[in-house]
């Protein structure tokens, strides 16, 4: 069965406080089902905000990009499970042992589905090269995606530029989550590799992550509805 547009949009709660985040959630009540909690908000509020969102009936995408030794990352996965997160990010660049440990920790009841972050959408070829990676972003994304899949992690975060290739390489069951989504006419901000909602879905995205085009809109609910309509049209 085809997923609902609401199941394919996660709104990024990029706020410094729980009050600011929940004010936005209240404005979007009835419009959006998924909310992404990133490092800024999580470090300020801890698991309490995740639990609040879950108790209100929302799904939580916990974007912590875990990257540490295998045992520590496995512990982080177990903590996210206790909080009730439905999705959790780890860094694919942490390597196969780390990802395998995370995947093993995510086999328990109520565990979040893991998403391996490949190459951040703020990075282009020049940024990658500065870190010692001579591959293009597309080459590095594919390399890390295959490494994640072989390590037991079947969800990926990548840009819309690479999603078509990953869908072809990894198959229909891979969960491909795409940040850097900017509706036509939106400010690009600090993102390098972006796409419209319609284009990302057409290329094979499973879920889109949208922040400022919704959270900084004059009418966030209206902005979200327009994006949901784009998703529906492209599905």
Automatic annotation (TrEMBL):
Official protein name in the record: Orotidine 5'-phosphate decarboxylase
Keyword check for Lyase: yes
Active-site residues per Swiss-Prot or TrEMBL entry: 63 (for ompdecase activity), 65 (for ompdecase activity), 65 (proton donor), 68 (for ompdecase activity)
Superkingdom: Bacteria
Function in brief: Catalyzes the decarboxylation of orotidine 5'-monophosphate (OMP) to uridine 5'-monophosphate (UMP).
Domain Orotidine 5'-phosphate decarboxylase: 8-227
UniProt source species: Edaphobacter dinghuensis
Sequence positions that bind substrate: 14, 36, 63-72, 121, 182, 191, 211-212
Keywords: Decarboxylase, Lyase, Pyrimidine biosynthesis
């Amino acid at each position: 069965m085809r997923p609902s547009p609401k199941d394919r949009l996660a709104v990024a709660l990029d706020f410094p406080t729980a009050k600011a985040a929940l004010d936005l959630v209240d404005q979007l009540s009835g419009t959006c089902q998924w909310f992404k909690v990133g490092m800024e908000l999580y470090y300020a509020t801890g698991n309490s905000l995740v639990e609040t969102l879950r108790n209100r009936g929302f799904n939580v995408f916990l974007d912590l990009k875990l990257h540490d030794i295998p045992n520590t990352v496995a512990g982080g996965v177990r903590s996210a499970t206790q909080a009730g997160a439905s999705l959790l990010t780890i860094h694919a660049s942490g390597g196969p042992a780390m990802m395998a440990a995370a995947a093993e920790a995510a086999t328990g009841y109520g565990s979040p589905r893991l998403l391996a972050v490949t190459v951040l959408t703020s990075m282009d070829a020049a940024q990658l090269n500065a870190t010692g990676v001579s591959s293009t972003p597309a080459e590095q994304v594919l390399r890390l995606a295959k490494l994640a899949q072989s390590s037991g992690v079947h969800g990926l975060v990548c840009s819309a530029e690479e999603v078509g290739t990953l869908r072809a390489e990894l198959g229909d069951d891979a969960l491909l989550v795409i940040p850097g989504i900017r509706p036509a006419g939106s400010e690009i901000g600090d993102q390098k590799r972006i796409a419209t909602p319609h284009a990302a879905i057409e290329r094979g995205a499973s879920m889109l992550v949208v922040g400022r085009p919704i959270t900084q809109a004059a009418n966030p609910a209206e902005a979200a509805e327009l994006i949901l309509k784009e998703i529906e049209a492209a599905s």
